[in-house]
Amino acid sequence: xxxAIIGTGNMGGAIARGLIAAxxxxxxxxxxxxxxxxxxxRLQATLPGVQAxxxxxxxxxxxxxxxxxxxxxxxxxxxxxxxxxxxxxxQLIISVAAGISLCELEEFLAAPEEAEKPILFRAIPNTAVxxxxxxTFICRQNATDEQTALVHDLFAALG
Length: 159
What we know:
With 159 residues, the protein is an alpha/beta fold.
């Protein structure tokens, strides 16, 4: 299973480091993106072994779970960028963007011709997830109990 962390800054980076430290994910199964070359250098230095890059679309295409960890004001443009490669039948989408509701996420992702609804989660973690002592609130939309358990387990490993 592959996890794309789109926006591997403070929160995205803390989640990635926590998942690796917990042993619940191998570094090679994390597809981590940043928006700048300097951010990419930092990412490669602090998270060796992850698939690091600047191509959000490629990361989203390859992932089973997509974690949107960008600033709230970038959510719309990032979703617009990755939307053409998303597969709502097989991918889960998790947002940690503060203040963006599940309804807003679904609106950003909506396409008139799309019959399939996206499987969405909103997670509100704290940065203590990096040291496996975090607390995360999770809510869902269009998700089964099995999918919810998968997301719960992902964050439970972090605290």
